[in-house]
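ok, trying the design again with the full structure, not the truncated one.
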């Protein structure tokens, strides 16, 4: 990426992987061109925000015309792969969190967990499976533009409050391992993973089907 592109706002940088992911699916469907209105509608962004982001990264296209999907995907690929490879932050370094960190150490694909947060003095300041653990109060200052995903491995009682703080930092996706049902802004994607509920479902299937 050229020097001027390094000056991109963090909020724009965080949206780039989301644009790329969506546009790759559009390209796969066979659609050749797309407007900022279509992109904004699909991702819950205002169309003028999409246009400003694309202007800042010098996306190929003419003012007032639709974007060519293939060229736009290729352009975003160059920027995302070089400068904004998605990374994840883990919230909660207890037993489940520690297990996730050790699994993360074995994964080769992204996003990989680059930092963890907790409030337990027994783990704060330590490194687990190569990942530093910071105090949860340091989230705002520690989270970088490349961290677009957060993984919640914390008690349900604190999950909503923490997820709201994460949303304010520009996080675009949250994987929630708690049993809490989170209410998030429309532009933050949620993946709910309740192990207890999944086990209950499996038990039901075994006994009744």
């Amino acid at each position: 990426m050229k020097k001027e592109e390094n000056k991109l706002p963090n909020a724009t940088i965080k949206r780039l992987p989301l644009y790329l992911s969506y546009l790759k699916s559009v390209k796969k469907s066979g659609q050749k061109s797309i407007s900022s209105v279509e992109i904004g509608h699909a991702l819950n962004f205002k169309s003028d925000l999409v246009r400003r982001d694309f202007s800042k990264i010098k996306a190929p296209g003419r003012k007032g015309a639709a974007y060519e999907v293939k060229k736009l995907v290729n352009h975003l690929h160059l920027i995302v792969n070089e400068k904004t490879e998605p990374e994840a932050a883990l919230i909660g370094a207890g037993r489940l969190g520690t297990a996730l960190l050790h699994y993360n150490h074995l994964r080769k694909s992204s996003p990989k967990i680059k930092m963890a947060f907790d409030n337990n003095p027994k783990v704060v300041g330590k490194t687990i499976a190569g990942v530093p653990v910071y105090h949860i109060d340091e989230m705002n200052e520690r989270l970088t533009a490349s961290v677009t995903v957060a993984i919640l491995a914390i008690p349900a009682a604190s999950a909503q409050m923490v997820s709201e703080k994460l949303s304010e930092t520009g996080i675009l996706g949250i994987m929630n391992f708690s049993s809490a049902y989170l209410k998030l802004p429309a532009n933050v994607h949620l993946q709910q993973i309740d192990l207890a509920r999944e086990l209950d479902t499996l038990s039901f299937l075994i006994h009744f089907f």
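Keeping the full-length input from now on. Confidence is low (pLDDT under 50) at residues 1-5.
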